[in-house]
């Protein structure tokens, strides 16, 4: 598991691992796992956890031979997800979705059904 290895390598397992795991779990609500390899997602989540915990890991990240531009792309997606969650208003969004849904048609009147059914049965009985 890349995340566990990275956190152990940093020597900050107790401080960073729980938060980094939560961030990894949140990434499954995006398409990141389809676009990037797991080690890059793990590094991005670890980077976000370091920033949140105010852990200076610049030197550790600088020693990695990884495309930091790709890691930053992943971080942007994660931050955008959190921004969407922060600004999401359940009542407003759900009301808008419900308004777009087609309304069910009311059932036909029972009186008109009986008269049309009665006429049909009479015509059949006469023949």
TrEMBL record:
Every Cyclin-like domain range: 5-80
Residues passing through the membrane, by range: none
One of the protein's GO biological processes: regulation of transcription by RNA polymerase II
Coiled coil regions, renumbered to chain: none
Signal peptide from the UniProt entry: none
Low complexity bias spans: 110-127
Region feature Disordered, mapped onto this chain: 99-127
Protein name per UniProt: Cyclin C
Organism: Neolamprologus brichardi (Fairy cichlid)
